[in-house]
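*** Protein under study ***
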Amino acid sequence: MYVWPCAVVLAQYLWFHRRRLTGKTVLEIGAGVSLPGVLAAKCGAEVVLSDSAELPHCLENCARSCQANGLAEVRVTGLTWGQVSPELLALPPLDIILASDVFFEPEDFEDILTTVYFLLQRNPQAQLWTTYQVRSAEWSLEALLHKWDLKCIHVPLHSFNADGEHLAGSTLPGRHTIEMLIISPKEEPS
């Protein structure tokens, strides 16, 4: 299975902050092969992996990753971005939401942030830890974050690169910048 560079960067961030994961409840959305979620589980988090309810093969990939890593306790569930489903409502209280390269197609951005907003409203102390590959300067999350009353902190990759090696480098032609963001609800004015 191929692991996308964004998943590697998010996993590196998790490993750097592994002591913060113990006892936390973590949801990975758009999990695919589930590298970040599997690592979070190995670091002591209670993890739920999710991918598209409409793509059973993606859910099978999540389950295979759990099986290969001896993680029978990790739950795998299908979620469809932008839809409130029984599976979404059945999620436990969350501390962290992980998302690796889910901001791939601009037509999905709104549905993703709708789901994230819903989850953060139910879990106001939670944060979305996400990595994404910048594919076009014309695609921006800023307006949607403002619309959904969410704030964003950019995390410099060098701030969690403990071994000094270049993170998620690419030999592909063109621009392949990876960004790390922490998204959370804006504080209510007092």
Notes: The chain has six helices and seven strands. Residues 106-122 form the longest helix (17 residues). The CA atoms of residues 15 and 39 lie 8 Å apart.
